[in-house]
Amino acid sequence: MTQQQDLSDIHLFLPCETPQRWIEAALDNQSILLIDHAHCERKAASTAINLMYRYPDRLDLQAKMSRLAREELRHFEQVLAILKKRDIPFRGLSASRYAGGMRQHVRKTEPGQLVDVLIIGAFIEARSCERFAKLSPFLDEELKKFYLSLLKSEARHYQDYLKLARDAANGSIDERVAEFAEVEKSLILDEDTEFRFHSGVML
């Protein structure tokens, strides 16, 4: 599958485009963008490892999450290297509303809980991919090249999460995807007071 096909699938999956106001905020807050990006990569690896521990009997999940965790940690290391090169100290940041807002809607019983967590993973990876692609034309050459290099793996991660969700549900997940799409859309289009990689538009 080509990069253009990956992005086309992602645009069909996501309920809305990233607003231009977020792009403008990202360009005005590039240090925060990079610091939060590093946190996102580390959290993605942690989520994958947690899923491996929680569902040891699901062998396809084990294989896909093991690979995903390694790739996300590699991306984390790459962002840290960029931060160091630019003399930007890595530090703690408050989390955006995005992931937490999605997780509020996760069902409490299995297999619904696993299905929902995997669907959220798909949205996080798809939105990350869309933002890398949309932001890259406005960045310096180093960051542009780096963000474009992430598109293929992020697109595959989104597809892996969706496949695992369908397998866990043992049937259609279209209704749940549609419900989470509405939640995701509101989180992306609503106003936020703090800029983050997955924040909404800025006040």
TrEMBL record:
SUPFAM superfamilies found in the cross-reference section: Ferritin-like
Pfam families in alphabetical order: MiaE
UniProt xrefs under InterPro entries: Ferritin-like, Ferritin-like_SF, tRNA-Hydrxlase_MiaE
Superkingdom of source: Bacteria
Gene Ontology terms describing biological process: tRNA modification
Alphabetized GO MF terms: tRNA 2-(methylsulfanyl)-N(6)-isopentenyladenosine(37) hydroxylase activity
PANTHER family tied to this protein: TRNA 2-(METHYLSULFANYL)-N(6)-ISOPENTENYLADENOSINE(37) HYDROXYLASE, TRNA-(MS[2]IO[6]A)-HYDROXYLASE
Protein name, UniProt field: tRNA-(Ms[2]io[6]A)-hydroxylase
Organism annotation: Alkalimarinus sediminis
